Amino acid sequence: MIEFLSKGGVLVGPILFCSVLALAIFLERLIRFARLRIRGYGLVEKIARQVKNGEDHQAYEAASTSNTPIGRILAQAMEVKDQDREILETVIVHSTEGEVRELSRYLQGLATIGNIAPLLGLLGTVLGMIKAFMVIQQMGGKVNAAVLAGGIWEAMLTTALGLAVALPTMVAHSYLVARVDKYEAQLQDGTVTFIKAVGRRS
Questions:
Q1: Could you give the CA distance from residue 16 to residue 159 in angstroms, rounded to a whole number?
Q2: C-alpha–C-alpha distance, residues 162 and 149, integer Å
Q3: Nearest CA among 12, 22, 2 for reference residue 174
Q4: pLDDT reported for residue 124
Q5: Residue 148: what are its φ and ψ, rounded to 5°?
């Protein structure tokens, strides 16, 4: 396999590096999201119940020690919950945006890999075709079908490899973006539940 890929030229290496990097990003995000789901289960309901019961200290402790996005958002909200409603909502929106950015970390890099992998493959093909036609020129225009065919398939190898990397990378990116959107909706639902709990107590 290594000998086969080596025929694709110098750009095979960068394309393979892109594939390894994309896989690493995808697995890291999957592990990150799995941990969030385990840690954050039932946290919003618990904090809302404590707030309604006047157990502010317990609610703050539960939020600040949870080490989850919704926990950090609610911990900051607890610090200003007795101030104006506008201030509370501003803090929640700002905190939510920050957590969404954290959840989206590396996703732009994944999208970039999905975009440049086929371009690297195309560049490799162009370079390979140039090399093939240079060989034909050196042969004095006497086209050898075997030489020409060999040069062409070696040139097109990088395009196939680039597409093979780009397609699963873009699928992985779309999947992770959908997961982030889902978590963002959950964060918004959680903050609404918290605001309602504060309003009922007041």
A1: 12
A2: 20
A3: 22
A4: 87
A5: -65, -45
